[in-house]
Amino acid sequence: MDVQKQESQSNEQPPNKSKSNDNRRDDYWIGFDLGGTKMLAALLDAKLRVVERKRRKTKGHEGLDVGLKRIVATIESVLKEADVEPERLRGIGVGCPGPLDLKKGVIREAPNLGWVDAPVKEYLEDAFHCPVVVANDVDAGVFGEHALGAARGSHCTVGVFPGTGIGGGCVYQDRILQGKNSSCFEVGHIQVAPDGPLCGCGQQGCLESVASRLAIAAAAATAVFRGQAPHLREIAGTDVAEIRSGALAAAIEAGDDVIENIVSSAAEKIGVAVASLVHLVAPDTVVLGGGLVEAMPDLIVKTVRATARKRVLPSYKDTFKVVAAKLGDDATALGAASWARQLLCD
Amino acid sequence: MDVQKQESQSNEQPPNKSKSNDNRRDDYWIGFDLGGTKMLAALLDAKLRVVERKRRKTKGHEGLDVGLKRIVATIESVLKEADVEPERLRGIGVGCPGPLDLKKGVIREAPNLGWVDAPVKEYLEDAFHCPVVVANDVDAGVFGEHALGAARGSHCTVGVFPGTGIGGGCVYQDRILQGKNSSCFEVGHIQVAPDGPLCGCGQQGCLESVASRLAIAAAAATAVFRGQAPHLREIAGTDVAEIRSGALAAAIEAGDDVIENIVSSAAEKIGVAVASLVHLVAPDTVVLGGGLVEAMPDLIVKTVRATARKRVLPSYKDTFKVVAAKLGDDATALGAASWARQLLCD
Q1: How many Å is the Cα radius of gyration of chain B?
Q2: Which residue of chain A has the CA closest to B159?
Q3: What average pLDDT does chain B have?
Q4: Residue A307 and residue A338 in one domain
Q5: Yes or no, beta carbons of B187 and A280 under 8 Å apart
Q6: In a domain, B111, yes or no
Q7: Which chain A residue has the Cα nearest residue B282?
Q8: Within this chain, do residues A255 and A111 fall inside the same structural domain, yes or no?
Q9: Which of A91, A314, B155, B345 is the 20 to 30 A CA-CA neighbour of B5?
Q10: Pairs of residues, one from chain A and one from chain B, whose beta carbons lie less than 8 Å apart
């Protein structure tokens, strides 16, 4: 590795530059999104503008050691393409799945990757000789929208990201709202239907059991099977694995009203949950993101907004807006970098 | 008023004492609980120990002007009884009902008092020439438990207080979790039953519509009417206004099993809501308080604890405790004083 000497090299910086870290004009940051199938390294300059991106398959099944090396190689590769020396890195932020030990920067368990006790922070600090901050991937995404995207300048941002499950995050007074040493704001597992369907977590009636893309796909597959959604039948058939956001959007566009009703009904449930979140943490901005929202932003954002506004106490009615996320697939990487910068520089 | 000169007098303090406010050994604080029926002024010393208390009826119906004067007179009276000059007050914290303008310290509307736009902060600052901090009464109570009661040293405290409604509050990293300029954490109005009973707020299935003392009393009155609760019939009859916490506890003690089932069932619903709160803000301590909990602490705390532990994701199971509040009727006044001290001294 060509970065082993970074620490001693950076000590050779002129004193006027090393005095205040914020004065270094050549600071760079890495934001890293460690996803179940893909990883993304983004190189950002001191003003958090993206200089370069590098995407690779995660290949978690190849094991933890190989995986950590792939992360390092991906970061090295993005640095190389941008012609930035590793010693110019001020810090690295990594958005990770699974329950985390935030202080140690360890992924305690990532079922999608098959990893247990992955020492992300320690490994990357050894490799790049700069501070590494680990955050939950959804939290990082919400922080990204707060710092650089759809929720800039907000006092309190709540993010809700429906996908296979429903992820959530909250940025309160410019900080990610976190537990003592772990992430929280598990919006997908608040109970919204006491006698609702079984959730992946083993409980009944969690929000994600009735309103995730997977829940929508299951209802849509049923409609296809019943012959109520001819367009979706052509596009995706009755296999829930094939009924992805794009297929749902295309079927609605083609005229499958029942699919529109299914998506609206899920969005209403998210809207009721958003109303509860408004009552609890009083966000001024609620950001909706993820593939489902990207495929049908108008339908979902409008339905969630209208339902939430109808469901809150009168004094909360005009206190929040509901908007679509802006950063797309970059959100977690950019958010992780911004969060690292905030923790390390503020 | 005998405090007009306070400001100039305090300027005559020796310089070594006025330099840091924390060094003044003679600092006193007023914590004030402005309730719908009673008001309580507590005088606290610099270590937040209660020196003196004074309780009066609020008599909100006599109007705002009379009410503000009663607040001042109650504070003057507690100072007088303790023989403490008003100029030794460092600050006043007031726990108030209703939607508040936190910055201006105004009660925007207090239906129980019949007051609109009550300038509490300005009025008391004019009267006592010291800083006044206004907070929501439940928030102040939860802060009191966090600072001086059942949740000392907690990273994140969630308080749930079932009464006529269900109040809630959250202290996150030693600060009351608040909206931009208003209180939040309206636990009573998160939806727990999509097709549940009509709530006082006009919506359906809010937590307080199924689990407040009023909801319990309604179910209990029905049981009495049906002849299923002979002891409660003797104690309180079928009038929901008479079926208060003490009556419920006495009926259970005397053997009305159906009443115990009704209370347990409500506590289970609170437990499910607590699980959602744990998923969202990851409290390490959940404090249950109010008259209902005080009358039946074992039954309610145990049921809420067991239900919440059963309902959370495995990684949250051992991250929180559920305990009964310790400060009783003092919570709001003591919390308001502690909160004022924290905001003014930290």
Answers
A1: 21
A2: A280
A3: 92
A4: no
A5: yes
A6: yes
A7: A179
A8: no
A9: B345
A10: 107
Q: Considering the domain boundaries, does residue A1 fall inside one? A: no
Q: Count how many residues are written for chain B.
A: 346
Q: Is residue A14 within 8 Å of A319, Cβ to Cβ?
A: no
Q: Which residues of B touch A (CB under 8 A)?
A: 99, 108, 155-156, 168, 170, 172, 177-180, 182, 184-187, 189-194, 201, 203, 272, 275-277, 279-282, 284, 311-313, 315, 319
What is the arithmetic mean of pLDDT over A218-240?
98
Residues A101 and A170 in one domain: no
Give residue-wise pLDDT tens across range A187-223.
Answer: 999 999 999 999 999 999 999 999 999 999 999 999 9
Please check whether residue A11 lies inside any domain of the structure.
yes
Share of chain A above pLDDT 70, in %: 92
Two tokens, residue A275: 């109303």
Going from the C-alpha of B278 to that of each of A78, A85, A146, A183, A228, the distances in angstroms are 39, 44, 23, 11, 40
> Considering only alpha carbons, which residue of chain A is nearest residue B190?
A276
Residues in chain B with CB shorter than 8 Å from the CB of A272 are 191, 194
CA distance A158 to A151: 9
The residue in chain B having the minimum alpha-carbon distance to the alpha carbon of residue A315 is B99
Residues A160 and A303 placed together within one structural domain of the fold: yes
CATH number at residue A241: 3.30.420.40
**B179/A276 CB distance under 8 A:** no
Taking contacts as CB-CB distances below 8 angstroms, the residues of chain A near B312 are 189
Interface mutation target, options A142, A280, A281, chain B, most CBs of B under 10 Å: A280
Residues B113 and B235 occupy one common structural domain: no
Same domain, B179 and B33: no
Residue of B nearest to A158 (CA): B280
The strand pair at A285-288 and A156-162 is best described as: parallel
Rounded Cα distance, A102 and A139, in Å: 12
- Contact status, residue B323 vs residue B288, Cβ threshold 8 Å: yes
Going by C-alpha positions, the residue among A296, A290, A285 that lies closest to residue A323 is A285
The pLDDT tens digits for B6-29 are 333 443 344 443 444 444 546 999
Of A156, A186, A319, the CB nearest to B313: A186
Q: Cβ contact (<8 Å) for A313 and B189?
A: yes
The residues pairing with B172 across neighbouring beta strands, listed in sequence order, are B156, B175
Spatial contact of B228 and B274, defined as CB atoms under 8 Å apart: no
How far apart are the CA of A323 and the nearest CA of chain B, in angstroms? 19
Same domain, B81 and B167: no
Q: Do A182 and B282 touch (CB under 8 A)?
A: yes
Please give the tally of structural domains in chain B.
2
- pLDDT class for B177, splitting at 50, 70, 90? very high
ipTM reported for the complex surpasses 0.85: yes
Class of residue A340 by CB neighbours under 10 A (exposed 0-12, middle 13-18, buried 19+): buried
Backbone angles phi, psi at B103, to 5 degrees: -65, -50
Task: Give dist(CA B251, CA A103) in Å, integer.
Answer: 50
Q: Do A281 and B185 touch (CB under 8 A)?
A: yes
A295 domain-assigned: yes
Report CB contact under 8 Å: A190, B313. Answer: no
CA distance A116 to chain B (A): 14
Residues A130, A168 share a domain:
no
* Higher-pLDDT residue of A10, A236: A236
A47-102, pLDDT tens digit by residue? 999 999 999 999 999 999 999 999 999 999 999 999 999 999 999 999 999 899 99
Say how far apart CA B201 and CA A310 lie, in whole Å: 12
- Which site among B100, B155, B173, B189 would you substitute to test the A interface, given the most A Cβ atoms closer than 10 Å to its Cβ? B189
Domain boundaries, position B307: 151-325
